[in-house]
Specification:
By secondary structure, the chain is of the alpha/beta class. 48% of the residues lie in helices and 15% in strands. The longest helix is centred in the C-terminal third of the chain and has 18 residues, at 246-263.
Length: 264
């Protein structure tokens, strides 16, 4: 059946450009309200509306997109781009167009699960190591009693497996898809299959399944509130230090050329 297309550019919320990457100036509640609206349109149109892509960006995403045109386009053309990472919040403030707050992937999944429970939407969890999505699903059902988990599957972002995965999601009659393949793989996977995905909304959520399943421990609330969750994760996973080098590089580039590129 032919899906009804939409024009995402006509619906974009107010945003700020951080080193050429769009970041929407939305609170978590506003992001969730937009997602609910997308799902209502999806159901009202007999589930024939093209899937909407949601991305939560952090400094690593933005730095990776500087050298990956495909990833940059993927972010800039998504239905929603939420500010995940205190560095992104700081950069938006420095550029004179502050975002209201940080919107993390883990928190988004939990709150989205609660909305799905209230409205009866079915959630599908894709990605992470074998067995992790199942544990994450069980935790989400504890946090959102009554949540309908349409299905879980580890799979992989390998294009050769796409048909099988999409068929699994279709047979599960899912409404919302959360993908945990890590960036940029998860986001490029969603974009590549956007017109074929049989769901109303798809969101890349990185390591959220690991946190929800208990495989990884999240930073204490006090560290989350002051933007030091990245430091706690580095303490627990010191092998991530090379990836963390993106943070000072990001800050330097924003300071040196952020305002000029934003004004342009």
């Amino acid at each position: 059946m032919t899906q009804i297309a939409h024009n995402p550019q006509a619906e974009l919320p107010d945003s700020v450009s951080v080193l050429g990457i769009r970041v929407d100036r939305l609170t978590q509640q506003e992001v969730l309200a937009h997602i609910e609206s997308f799902l209502q349109q999806y159901v009202a149109n007999d589930r024939q509306v093209v899937c909407r892509q949601i991305i939560t960006v952090n400094p690593e995403f933005i730095m990776a997109a500087q050298h990956n045109a495909q990833f940059r386009q993927c972010i800039n053309e998504a239905a929603l781009v939420a500010p995940d990472g205190i560095g992104v919040v700081w950069a938006a403030r420095y550029l004179g167009k502050p975002t209201p707050e940080r919107v993390t992937g883990v928190d988004m999944v939990v709150e989205l699960a609660k909305r799905c429970t209230t409205q009866g939407y079915r959630l599908y969890l894709l990605g992470a190591a074998p067995g992790v999505a199942e544990l994450a699903a069980a935790r989400l059902q504890e946090l959102a009693p009554g949540l309908q988990i349409a299905g879980t599957y580890a799979g992989s972002p390998d294009p050769a497996e796409e048909e099988t995965i999409i068929e699994r999601i279709r047979n599960a009659r899912a409404d919302v898809l959360c993908v945990a393949y890590g960036a940029p793989g998860q986001d490029l996977w969603i974009r590549r299959n956007l017109t074929r995905l049989p769901v109303g909304v798809a969101m890349g959520i990185g390591g959220a399944f690991d946190f929800l399943s208990g495989r990884q421990k999240r930073a204490p609330k006090s560290m989350q509130k002051i933007g030091l969750e990245w430091l706690y994760r580095l303490y627990r996973e010191p092998w991530r230090w090379k990836r963390m080098l993106a943070l000072p590089k990001f800050a330097i580039q924003v300071i040196l050329k952020g305002r000029s590129s934003h004004d342009a």
